[in-house]
Each structure stands twice: as structure tokens, then as C-alpha cells.
Amino acid sequence: MKLYETTFIARQDISPAQVEALTEGLVTILKENGGSTGKSEYCGLRNLAYPIRKNKRGHYVLMNVTASADALKELERRMRLNEDILRYLSVQVESHEEGPSALLKATKYGREDNERERRPRFEGERSKYMSDRPARPSAQDQSATDSQE
Predict the structure, then answer these.
(1) Where are the alpha helices (DSSP H) in the chain?
(2) Terminus of the chain with fewer CB atoms < 10 Å: N or C?
(3) Largest Cα span, the chain
(4) What is the pLDDT of residues 114-136, one digit of tens each?
């Protein structure tokens, strides 16, 4: 049996309870075909990058799946036939991640753990980032050097 991560996007107009029922139905299909699921995460209603079948938002669900190739094909066939599922993607992985997924960690404004350095917002902060560059002369300094020449 191989390990997979399966993510699907459900329509925006169904409720989170219906998404949970849909997920349970997919888990049941997987168990009937000899597979199993580790965790399934409901990642919330999110904006889509582009409209899919006139939907601008979608409910994201991630499932860690352990199944044979035939069981995964049957799961994907059922997802393709279901009208509530807009898109799905199954990826084979070497091991399932413990804890919350990266999709669940992401917030509305970017990553939750802000590891990137902050860029300067105004000239007063430029010394940290532009210390090796010479400063630009101000308008007064420019006019003073022009009058001397």
C-alpha cells in the first residue's frame, strides 16, 4: 500500500457540515476498497485564484490516504462524478506529516510564522539594508554643488 495526500475543493454554497458528510462518504469508499485514511483536515472556505464553474470560493479538505492504486482510482472516479467537488489532486508521498498541514497553517494575510525579514517602509530604515550604498544627495546639496561649478 502506498501513501498519498489527497486534497479536494468543494463548492462554496454547501455548508461545512455537508463538507464533513462528503468527506466521510469518501472515507467509506476508500475503506470498501481496502484503503484507509490517517487524518482529514477541513481547511476552511478560501478564495480561488480563478473562478471554477462560477464559484469564486471553495471548501478545502486534505486527507492522508493509505491505499492501493486501484482504491485510489476508484476514489478519484467518485470525486470526478460528484457535482459538489470542483477540483481534486492526489499526490504520492514518502511519509505523512504529523501535526497541521501547511494549508491549515496559512492565514488570510500570508504565513503565520513570519520568518521573512521585513523590508524597509521608509528612508529612516534604509541603513540596515543599504549600508554599502552611498546616500543620494538631497535637492539642497545638489543645488549647492551646481552653484560652485
Answers:
(1) 16-32, 69-81, 102-105, 126-129, 139-148
(2) C
(3) 89
(4) 445 555 555 555 555 555 556 66
